[in-house]
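PROTOCOL LOG
Step 1. Enter all chains and additional molecules of the complex.
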Amino acid sequence: GNSVTQMEGPVTLSEEAFLTINCTYTATGYPSLFWYVQYPGEGLQLLLKATKADDKGSNKGFEATYRKETTSFHLEKGSVQVSDSAVYFCALSDLGTGGGNKLTFGTGTQLKVEL
Amino acid sequence: KAGVTQTPRYLIKTRGQQVTLSCSPISGHRSVSWYQQTPGQGLQFLFEYFSETQRNKGNFPGRFSGRQFSNSRSEMNVSTLELGDSALYLCASSGDRGRYNEQFFGPGTRLTVL
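Step 2. Run joint prediction.
Step 3. Record the structure below.
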């Protein structure tokens, strides 16, 4: 079945540091890939997405490129801020046996950014 | 547009009881999915409903069930609660416009089973 593996946290960085959170996936077919972010006490927010190989998703300074050859979708940001502190989830979308929506998530990586 | 709403936000139950959680999707969205989030198992897909029909199902026991109404609002029910059912239950709605369907998540219902 489908699976997503992402680096374990917590990741602690100083403000303005470079961020990379690794994500690799296993899937049949051609899934869409996502990064979601979860702030304390809240649900998930879509951060960025890529729907086909070599697509680059970007939002709020975060970027990730869909690499089919390495089955990866690593999240990067050039300069993190304290406000980026949250849990980040990599996910893939499987159309499911019924043709609908089903997200498979990684375990999440907690990011803490300090001044 | 109003976002996905879930009620109640917090719930405390005891073992053996049953519980019903509610989700109202974004207006116009016909697909509603449910996920369970726990520290040990992470985020796991429960089921998806589309136009009042269950379209996909995850690997959860039959104690977990759901339904969707004609206005796309959805409920999920857990019967004979166990301590391990303590979790954040997230609902997500989607516009279902083809292969890629962005899912919008609600704030979740935090269920505690004592």
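Step 4. Note key features.
Chain A has a mean pLDDT of 92.
The interface with chain B takes residues 32, 36, 41-46, 49, 51, 89, 91, 93, 95-108 of chain A (CB under 8 Å).
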